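Hi support team,

I've been running sequence recovery on a batch of backbones for a student project. Most finish fine, but this one hangs at about 90% for roughly twenty minutes before it completes. I'm not sure whether the input is malformed or the queue is just slow. I've pasted the structure tokens below so you can try to reproduce it. Let me know if you need the job ID as well.

Thanks,
M.K.
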């Protein structure tokens, strides 16, 4: 079955054709237009500009996706579109485009939750790698979300824990911007932190793990608090870490001292990654033996990938993280989730509308 996916929830417009044969999903095309260059000027996403840019590019990207997949709209048996959560104006562009396309070609349409879509990147067969089969624990880490789920099936999830305030990606973006990393700061923060870890423990093989006992980490001037909430829950709070980081930057500024940016990025990353790892470890203890799936833009973070792979080996569970190119926003993951929504009979009504809100997934 050929499925066309459409994604326009934030600052990437994407159209993709995937092929689904039972549980084998392969990508035929995955055209992505990133608006980063447009929004970087403003230091963050400007919703109105994002909507207009989606409207500009969505038709040509869809043509491109069909052409690259060597098919036409007549070959498409299902259209899947991100309906929520995200920027409302941006979502509306994709939803209305997908509705018109499905309606005019008499193709069934399914609505996809963006977060379930991120997790569905792990169902895609990439170079014969392992794909996720429920039940599993899923960590969704993106610009707007940080949550741990129990996936009972590919369409039924229960929430085990989440951030009570800021998301991990958004905190990297905000703090990164303060230390001069251009938007979106995640990837630059990742590289800067690596320099910090290496600087703190130059001789260590595993420079991330060595950081815990390094002198740089123990320096009180550089210390930041853990975002893990210590109440027995699987919840996190990034706002305390963020505020402490802002205060630390200001303290250096007030004294006229230069902030050691690499060590700061290393400490920030370490606290964020350790807290998530600690909560995932608790989730694994509560649901022993289940594989772990990590999804969303922040799943590209090399230190998070490393820490979770150490944890998974220690607990002897499978770890499935999609390749970096499928971690960020893309329509192939939306089409993959759309396939399973369709198989479960979740066809969208003609009244389908976009929503900025999370669904109770
Ligand atoms: O999933 P995504 O593409 O969009 C949302 O659904 O939010 O995630 C974007 C987020 C941004 O905050 C970006 O800075 C972050 O993912 N990100 C990273 C890395 N690459 C992207 N964060 C940390 N390390 C990275 N390597
Ligand atoms: Zn996303």
């Amino acid at each position: 079955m050929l499925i066309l996916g459409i994604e326009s929830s934030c600052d990437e417009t994407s159209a993709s054709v995937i092929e689904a044969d039972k549980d084998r999903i392969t990508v035929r095309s995955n055209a992505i237009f990133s608006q980063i260059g447009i929004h970087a000027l403003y230091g963050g996403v400007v919703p109105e500009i994002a909507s207009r840019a989606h409207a500009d590019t969505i038709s040509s990207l869809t043509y491109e996706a069909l052409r690259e997949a060597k098919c036409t709209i007549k070959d498409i048996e299902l259209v899947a579109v991100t309906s929520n959560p995200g920027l409302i104006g941006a979502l509306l562009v994709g939803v209305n485009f997908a509705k018109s396309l499905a309606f005019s070609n008499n193709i069934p349409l399914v609505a996809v939750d963006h977060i379930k879509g991120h997790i569905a990147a792990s169902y895609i067969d990439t170079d014969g790698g392992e794909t996720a089969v429920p039940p599993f624990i899923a960590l969704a880490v993106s610009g707007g979300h940080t949550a741990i789920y129990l996936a009972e099936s590919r369409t039924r999830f229960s929430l085990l824990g989440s951030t009570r305030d800021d998301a991990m990606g958004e905190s990297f973006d905000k703090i990164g911007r303060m230390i001069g990393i251009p938007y979106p700061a995640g990837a630059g923060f990742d590289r800067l932190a690596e320099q910090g870890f290496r600087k703190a423990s130059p001789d260590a093989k595993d420079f991330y793990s060595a950081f815990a006992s390094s002198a740089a980490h123990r320096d009180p001037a550089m210390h930041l608090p853990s975002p893990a909430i210590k109440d027995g829950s699987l919840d996190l709070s990034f706002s305390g870490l963020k505020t402490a980081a802002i205060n630390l930057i200001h303290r250096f500024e007030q004294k006229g001292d230069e902030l050691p940016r690499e060590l700061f990025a290393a400490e920030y990353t370490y606290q964020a990654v350790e807290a998530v790892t600690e909560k995932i470890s608790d989730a694994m203890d509560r649901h022993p033996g289940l594989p772990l799936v990590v999804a969303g833009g922040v799943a590209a973070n090399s230190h998070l990938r490393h820490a979770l792979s150490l944890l998974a080996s220690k607990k002897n569970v499978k770890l499935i993280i999609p390749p970096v190119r499928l971690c960020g926003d893309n329509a192939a993951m939306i089409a993959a989730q759309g396939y399973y929504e369709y198989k479960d009979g979740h066809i969208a009504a003609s009244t389908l509308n976009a929503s900025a809100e999370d669904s109770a997934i």
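--
Follow-up from support: It reproduced on our side and the slowdown came from queue contention, not your input. The pocket of zinc ion (ligand 2) is lined by residues 114, 118, 142, 296-297, 329 (CB under 6 Å). No action needed from you.
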